[in-house]
């Protein structure tokens, strides 16, 4: 059996569940101890250093792609690579797809979908940074693609591979904090006008010369053409809804991960923007308050989840002080899951849980619930690589799970963007009370970037 066929067959044996399945595979073909051929799309910036340092450097790094050669030059030098370099991932796949087993995608949000699907169509396993997609149609399409192409998938909310989130999930499911009906999450950003977020005085922002080494047309990808501005690139693109999804799209994939997993939250029925700072059209706000309403499921009753970004006074946030956590801000937890017996707090990237009251914390330390979820060794990239080889189970943040998490977040982003209440029919995939917003569930793309339509035929 040829290596490509072997890897594709191996991936096809993976179960669809987001809970770790039993994995069994024959050893014909590529040795489990041999190296995989890994490519990178988006080779610049610190985010691209994560896979290199956390397991991928032990594989064969066969190709690199980035639309900005100068922006990734330092990484290329540090990695001492002489492998082929491309500025267009479509060209890379056309020329080298038979030589690539797996690819790590670390581009801005608006190009995640096209790069990911182009890889999956060629039988290449994918690790895509969060958020998985830029709109809900794309998230649902990648779920279809996963079912069709049978490749190993993973979204880069790396806390999902940690011990801390497993401890939290096990504690909630074991009833340590009692029945849960409320969740509160926050992030103090964005710092508009700082190093990572633009604060333009007008829209569109003033054009500036295209930096040497940047292919601006390829950077735009599927998004409508416009003049370059240094407010867009590098780094500040998250400020603009056309390219990024603000704090909720960025940090929400980490911070909401624990409650979504622990409470088995599916799509909400209602999402409402309670408060929003003013911003120019198309620009994220400096702060917002979003409230999700999730229906009852199994033994869990209806649950609300509130997200706050921007400066917040936690003493004024809902029932965060219900169990004596009046000074919750100093406890350093970005998420509080509120139960009838106490609260569980976790960090921006999940992390080790903290319990309130102190009595509950001490009892958990002495008598933690049984470990029911297998632990991950070596972090999310090694988890993904082991699954490709057939040495381990499917990654926990595979597209079955991460597409659901992404859809939840994207609904909040839409409510925030238009400062509105959204009533969501998940089965139909439609907003029922503001039908004009359905146009944003599947955004128009430029010619040459029409990916995924055939999966719906």
Describe this structure in words.
This protein is α/β, with parallel strands linked by helices and 457 residues long. The chain has a domain of 180 residues: NAD(P)-binding Rossmann-like Domain (Rossmann fold). It is built from 13 helices and 15 strands. Strands 13-12-11-7-10-9-8-14-15 form a nine-stranded mixed sheet. It has a six-stranded parallel sheet with strand order 3-2-1-4-5-6, sandwiched between helices. Strand 5, helix 6 and strand 6 form a beta-alpha-beta unit. Helix 6 runs antiparallel to helix 13 and helix 9 packs antiparallel against helix 13. The chain is globular and about 60 Å long. The protein starts with a helix and ends in a 26-residue tail after the last strand. The N terminus is likely disordered.
